[in-house]
Amino acid sequence: QVQLLESGGGLVQAGGSLRLSCAASGRTFSAYVMGWFRQAPGKEREFVATISRSGSTRRYADSVKGRFTISRDNAKNTVYLQMNSLKPEDTAVYYCAAANSYYMGSYPYEYTYWGQGTQVTVSS
User: Fold this and answer.
1) pLDDT tens track, the chain, 124 positions
2) Most CB atoms within 10 A, among 7, 38, 52, 54?
3) Alpha-carbon distance 80 to 9, whole Å?
């Protein structure tokens, strides 16, 4: 089992940057595919990015490709989401998630463990 805690959210102007972190408990962090999702008010939770267990493979939603970068440090049990060129439509609660598998899914049901979320608000 793994527990996840996100941090780094906040209020930023359009065009700005934020770096989200997600710290995981437990000794087997490297056994989990990690993902970032987001949920805006009144909308369903949507996929943002995912990273393989070793960190060698990454995949992004089209809406964030070229602006966001997912990375992980297995020695620190932490996954990151660097967000650049932020837009008002990026405003949402951002969640990190863990899946004990090799498959890098893009649907929430494919992930077992979830953090509490961190709010990101981008003003125009």
Assistant:
1) 899 999 999 999 999 999 999 999 977 999 999 999 999 999 999 999 999 999 999 999 999 999 999 999 999 999 999 999 999 999 999 999 999 988 999 999 999 999 999 999 999 9
2) 38
3) 12
Backbone φ and ψ for 67, nearest 5 degrees, come out as -115, -35
**Kindly report the CA angle at 69 between 63 and 75, in degrees rounded to 5?**
145
- The position carrying tokens 């990190």 is 96
**SS3 for the chain, per residue?**
CCCEEEECCEEEECCCCEEEEEEECCCCHHHCEEEEEEECCCCCCEEEEEECCCCCCEEECCCCCCCEEEEEECCCCEEEEEECCCCHHHCEEEEEEEECCCCCCCCHHHCCEECCCEEEEEEC
* Strands 4-7, 18-24: pairing kind: antiparallel
